[in-house]
Structures are given as structure tokens and as C-alpha cells.
Amino acid sequence: MPDFELEDETEGLVAGVDEAGRGPWVGPVVAGCAVFLNRNVDERLLSELNDSKKLSKKKREMLYALLESEAQKGNVLIGIGEASAKEIDEINILNASFLAMKRAIAKAGAKPDLVLIDGNRLPKDFGFSAKAVIKGDAKSYSISAASILAKVYRDRLMEKMALVYPEYGFEKNAGYGTKAHIEGLKKFGVTPEHRRTYAPIKEFLK
């Protein structure tokens, strides 16, 4: 379960960032940023926060709403950033993920002394002191909150995209290469939202 141990190692403001959507074949990569300005927050937040992949959709939605509520109270800074499929194709998914993280930090209005990044890679020229934390969304409350923000926001985006392109099952598969997605590609081809540099999409473009 996450805690504030990593945050407490640094004096000053600590932001957690995480992304959702590196693996899907379609749509943007989305990053969340969360900064706990104080810890006097709804107790459900601290008791339920965890790696977003381990939580049910209903629980993620509940935590997302709590984070928005705590942000309105001034207890937490939150921000969400995106990098489009076009940007992913231009600069690759890793750099696009870092770009989305930078945008999320800017959206949060944070000027952190340290950024905790989920994963094992650090961006060059990030503009902030940063630390990579493997499985960070299960270790740090800030990263865990960021992972919830990114996952819920991106899932909602893909549900909206499914209304525009109903043939690919995006509302269920979030853009991953499921059977329904592949069938859609076979019948209806590649959409403007697909990541053209991804190997399976390259094959369909041939």
C-alpha cells in the first residue's frame, strides 16, 4: 500500500506523476500530476488509494471525484496532460509520455522541488528535479493519485472516442489491441486517432 515515505525524504513540494495509455494503438497518452499540500484529506482517499490497475472502475471513479473535491478545498493540486497520437508518432511514446507529464505539472500549477515519476526512466531537460520510482503507484500516495487521474481521464476520453468511431470497441478496450479492435481495423481501416508508428497499425496501413 502507498504511503508518504518518499514524499517525506524531501523538504519542500513533492509532485507525483504517472501516465496511462502507453500500450494502446490509438488515442493520446495521458499523464496525471498530484501534490498533497496537506494531509488533512478525506480518509477514504488515503485508505483506498493504490495502483489504479488493481482497483475496480467504480473505486477509481470514486477516488477521482474525491481528488477533485480535495483540489477544490485547496488540499491537493491536481493536473492532467495529454500528448496526441500525432505527437506520439513524431517523438515516440516515451518522449510523448514525458511531454504529457510536463503538461500535467503545468496544469496543476505546481512548482515542485521534486517530481516522483512512476517507472524506471527519467526525462532529459525536464525542468524539475526528478526521481524514478519502480512500481511507484503502489508506494507513493502522490504517484498513486496521479495514476488514478490519468487512468480515469483517459478511459473517459476513449468512451467519447467510441461515439465517433463505434466500430472498434474503444469504450471497452481503451484502444488496446483486442479482438474487437482488430476486427474493426480489418473492416473499417485506420482512423486519424491511430498511432501510425505502432507495428500492428503499420501492418494495416500496408
Would you give an account of this structure?
The protein is of the alpha/beta class and 206 residues long. It has one domain: Ribonuclease H-like superfamily/Ribonuclease H (Nucleotidyltransferase, domain 5), CATH 3.30.420.10. The protein contains 9 helices and 5 strands. The protein has a 5-stranded mixed sheet with strand order 3-2-1-4-5.
Instruction: Round the mean pLDDT to the nearest integer and report it.
Output: 96
Output the radius of gyration.
17 Å
How do the strands of the widest beta sheet line up side by side?
3-2-1-4-5
Helix and strand pattern: HEEHHEHHEEHHHH
Please indicate the percent range of residues in DSSP E strands (runs of 2 or more): 15-25%
Number of helices: 9
CATH architecture: 2-Layer Sandwich
What general outline do the C-alpha atoms trace? globular
Number of domains: 1
Q: Care to give the gist of this entry?
A:
The chain has helices at 5-8, 43-48, 57-73, 85-91, 93-108, 141-164, 170-173, 179-188, 199-205; strands at 14-20, 29-36, 76-83, 114-118, 130-133.
List keywords for this structure.
206 residues, alpha/beta, Nucleotidyltransferase, domain 5, five-stranded mixed β-sheet, 46% helix
Helix and strand topology:
Layout: H1 5-8, E1 14-20, E2 29-36, H2 43-48, H3 57-73, E3 76-83, H4 85-91, H5 93-108, E4 114-118, E5 130-133, H6 141-164, H7 170-173, H8 179-188, H9 199-205
